[in-house]
Protein 1
Amino acid sequence: MRNPLIPGFHPDPSVCRVDGTYYLVTSTFEYLPGIPVFRSDDLEHVELIGHVAVRDGQLGTTGVPTGGGTWAPTIRHHDGRFWLVVPDMMGTGRGNVLFTADDPAGPWSDGVVMDVFGIDPDIAWDADGTCYVTMSGLGIEDDGSMKHLGITQVRLDPETGAALSEPIPLWSGTGGMFPEAPHLYEVDGTWFLMIAEGGTERGHSVTIARGPSPEGPFEGAPHNPLVTARGSDRAVQNTGHGDLVQRADGTWAMVLLGTRPRSMTRAFAPMGRETFVVPVTWDDAGWPHAEPVLLDDRHAPVERTITFPTEAPAALDGFDGEVVAVRAFPRDVADLTARPGWARLTGRGVGMADEHPVFLGIRQCTEAAVVTVTLDVSAGVGGLTMRYDEHTHLDVEATADLVTMTMTARGLQQSWARPRTGGGEVRLRVVADPPPVGRSVLGSSCDRLTGLVEDGGAWVELGGVDGAFLSSDFTESFTGRVVGPYAREGVVDVRAIEYTGQDVQR
Ligand code: 6LW
């Protein structure tokens, strides 16, 4: 199958099928708009058709800490409607929220908060219409700290979010840490409970159990784990957190998350957790089997330019659907009307170290990538950044006569600067250059990141760093690289974000 199915930071995939069409959703954490919805006709190609959270108040993202916000969603189609349950975590997060929509492209409802305590909720109905929410349950210890309770389940009133029963414990895997990501399916009268365990890092896995009812009792499959990359030298690691779907022709597939680490030791994934897909078959004893995630079919090069046309479509307030902002909607960060054809960013005196940067970004989605922005800094200071979070980012920043590249990695900082000519308009570039597979580059464990400025018609390199600093392993982040323009001070106008990239041949 074609992998990654959804490249770039797109973890915790969930999928449902309606007739011949699949709908997929992934987690967005502190980024908005929240929860992209993808459509696919073949589980090979996906198209972004909208987002669940496009209005203020649907999620509490504006005040969530890094690592909080929108965690693993589940999407289902039931009773003629689409249903999505998702944890909106920490800080100003609302808790576990249930959204509905007639059209998966939106609009989605304002959401009701469910009376459950846990993460990774799943929603399922039995033949009588009883609604079950199954989750990775959380409890509070006497000292106030949180503890994992394993997989738990309540009956729910899906209209109000009220829990209609006390949480019951369910099968919680084979002993791996953090039993999470439960999904419940009824297949020919048998109920299957599929979960992830082992943590979302190298120990990650998918395991499964079955039982006579949605409440169990469940017995684990004899061949668990269904999927894991732990201990393997496969190009895709950390595989786990899956969701099953039956195709219209009766065959099955699993979407799941994984990483594409770069180093010899299978560490340092530049793009964080991405979405993959594998075929699933059933044995004579009625158990599913999934194939490991392989990178056997490489994607075509990606080439795209994001502009800010005056006659922009109304959806997403005129922004390209791939554009995200941090703890804010792109519309709150950039003004598309001040200067037709440009996105105006107005600095607030803070840079990318701030939790609320004035920043528009797109995901790095190929192993090799060249990202270029065209800015006007005649009345401000701003640049191009590649970000994991406020603690770790690579900034190429320009004023009318100076350009500075600064790598910030959790308290360490190094800068390279050079004067520039050319006035207000400036083109800045960040290049991610991975070594050929199986070879490491001296002094680099991941890819090589360089910052460049166009000066006198030529690209001039400012400096370079090991991309391992901008990996999910170094940052211990749930997200991935997001890259784009930002403003520090004054007015910075953005004319275009250009992305070209390609995966490395293996
Ligand atoms: C998610 C959990 C996990 O809730 O990481 O892979 C958490 N697994 O299931 C955040 O994505």
Protein 2
Amino acid sequence: MSEYQRICLVHYHKIGLKGHNRASFEQRLLNNIAYILKDRPIESIRRISGRVCIHFSEGISFEDSCSIAEAIKGVPGVARISCGYVCDRTMEDIDDASVQAAHDVAPFNTFKVAARRNHTDFPVHSMQMNCIVGDVLSEAFPDATVRMKDPDAIVHVEVIEGAAYVYARTERGVGGLPVGTGGRVMCLLSSGIDSPVATWRLARRGAECIGIHFSGRPQTASTSEYLVDDIAHVLERTGCIARIYVVPFGDYQRKIAGAVPPQLRIIIYRRLMFRVAQRLARDEKSKALATGESLGQVASQTLDNIAATDDAVSMPVLRPLIGMDKLEIIDNAQQVGTFEISSQDAPDCCTLFMPRAPETHARIGRVHAAEASLPLDEWVEGIAAGAIVHDYRCASYMSRKHPHATSSNDSQ
Ligand code: ATP
Ligand code: MG
């Protein structure tokens, strides 16, 4: 039996996709996957019949093909992936390739064949193919029996255009929409557990995510900046982060701490963080901010405090974790791969100049009064000018020229 060329078919949900929308969605998904697979042994990647089809290089090992499939699974927009073989559209080749595909999922007790053809120019119709391939598999796997309902293995045969695609291995992908189809969001990114998950969830809905990290520098060490960079490298593997602005914030916290009532410090730090984020978001043509807050998770994440921070900016502030429990967020962080990094302790601006009894129900009038004497506009400009930019691999974002294109981190 000959070794057929290995392929991987990427399926996505077609709900709500029509006409032009669908073509640009497919193209975006294809570009995002192609970007992630840039240095991998891939011969081609193209759209066929509502899927993205990846042809692996000749002679690629089973293990390498699995590791590539693993990488693709995490890319937003991928609903399912199927790994198998492409062969000529002759029944002889289809039979052989089906046995090979079934070996990839062996051992199994029950199986069925699911064949379909895209064009009636292929003379054998689907039911006939099911029977022919079923017989061949019964001979090759004499201990296995055919079962229509919930079989252990399903061998798919798809005759599409000039070739036949045969596969039995199918796995779920991360779902969602391709990054770059949902606009751009400026995400407030600490090195904690929550905000990387919030960022990932927005990327999974198609947003191009730009992070902004406020470090306690020069009042603290830069540990949190390294952790945020490590987190970004994890998010980058699936194209979920485009860029991060690192903003030294410690001196401004010191100034605030010396000028406002202690219980209002945190609110006022946060209002300044939001203003700086909005200022940089406008440069980035991003239309929303995002945080990792979850209602009532810590004393400061109350509705009053959320209202008091949102009052500082005019952009919508998205909070994708607002209704999630901490344990759900931790599970999600483990799935994304950021949990271990986020569990390391690092002083960031949050640990600096903290009051003993922070306000949990800030009254907006008092906040405005406390801020009245601060040169906020000047600070926002100064802080934004001091931001350091790190770029990451995000296909849709990289394809456009940007005024700050001085990448300080050409990761890999
Ligand atoms: P996280 O786990 O994301 O650090 P948290 O549970 O520590 O969140 P807070 O400290 O109240 O909660 O922060 C709430 C949100 O504010 C964070 O999810 C993040 O979006 C933003 N934020 C907090 N600290 C920083 C920081 N140093 N830089 C950027 N954003 C921050
Ligand atoms: Mg935190």
